[in-house]
TrEMBL record:
Keyword tags: Signal
High-level lineage: Eukaryota, Viridiplantae, Streptophyta, Embryophyta, Tracheophyta
Annotated region (Disordered), positions in chain: 86-130
Region forming the signal peptide: 1-24
Highest taxon above the source species: Eukaryota
Protein's recorded name: Neprosin PEP catalytic domain-containing protein
InterPro entries membership: Glutamic_endopeptidase, Neprosin, Neprosin_propep
Sequence ranges of Basic and acidic residues compositional bias: 95-104
Pfam family, one: Neprosin_AP
Residue ranges of every copy of the Neprosin PEP catalytic domain listed in the record: 174-432
Composition-biased stretches (Polar residues): 108-123
Amino acid sequence: MAASHHRSLPVLVLILSLLLLAAAVGPAVSEANSTVFWPEKEMRKYRRARAHLKRLNKPPVKTIESPDGDLIDCVLSHLQPAFDHPKLKGSRPLDLPERPRGHAPDGTATTGHDFQLWRTSGESCPEGSVPIRRTKEEDILRASSAKRFGRKPIATTRLDSESDDHEFDHSLVPCNSHDRQHAVGYVVGDQYYGAKASINVWAPKVTSPSEFSLSQIWIISGSFGTDLNTIEAGWQVSPQLYGDSSPRFFTYWTSDAYQATGCYNLLCSGFIQTNNMIAIGAAISPVSKPTGGQFDISLLVWKDPNHGNWWLELGSGKLVGYWPSFLFSHLSEHASMVQFGGEVVNSRPMGEHTSTQMGSGRFAGEGFGQASYFRNLQVVDWDNSLVPVPNLRVLADHPGCYNIQGGINAVWGNYFYYGGPGRDDDNDDSCS
């Protein structure tokens, strides 16, 4: 009898395991025909994600696997996502633009073609193609919806380019819980046709998947109501967008204050890439280390006076691509503000300020080797000439969490240190 009892134990365990598995899986099962019924909402989400993947991922002529797991597809230049736009169908990338006068590659910047992980093996895409980080299903499913995938959250804290006192406007955008916080240097009050800076790269801690930390240049025009135009480029850590905590080279644009237009990188019809060795959205390596080597990237964004498109250059004269002028309303003419600096999303986890770091996670006062920096700040004027930034102002909207200190010297020109830890044990009373 005892032996029979022991033999029945594995059967009982198996039955219990199957019952628990059925309870955990979730979809309903019809006893009549054993058909599985997935919840309609989930089915719609998966269908939209797959449809979006089909639109984004173009057939590659070659695929390169990065050491971090990214797949880099080499796509024929005229088949990249930008050319899905009705105004670009059937066209091809433009010839080289006219560079700004006074422009000399930053000889002290450490950016080469091999500053990204996917290029550590020395591979690149063939001429006539561009490298595009492949979007995976899980990337889209991490977003709030397929429609919002690849877009920034609408800002609830912002620096208004048309305000009289140029202070932060703390009015809220309805129906959005994300608070974007900044430590920036900026110029306003003139017509700007581009900007240049060198930015050192770090790997700040981002504590919530829905938050990000970035450092970038903003080219801005319009108001912060519904017609804001921006062009943005820099580096960012965004677990929701990329699925990890690596700093990545990125671009962004919007023509309606982040509402319905624009996106990161090549995740919509917009930016036209021309470079076959730089993958927008790919991880940057190496990064800066405290009291160790400082790694920075040099970025130049400017409006080509011949065709009116906004071009992006990285490092020592490497053209990445351009934003067509027709994407914008105000920026089809010029910018009214340029910003340089850091931004984080504060989702207020547990009702407290986030501990997501900006820059290196250290305050500006800690200086070189500890704090993040922007150096050699310049703007492009009406004559397509690069000039030192005039009357740079610095501003941090939550200085107890993230701050900024500017300066000028013969080597770095206009520069500033910026960043901070957000909320931590040492500054939990002053950061809110």
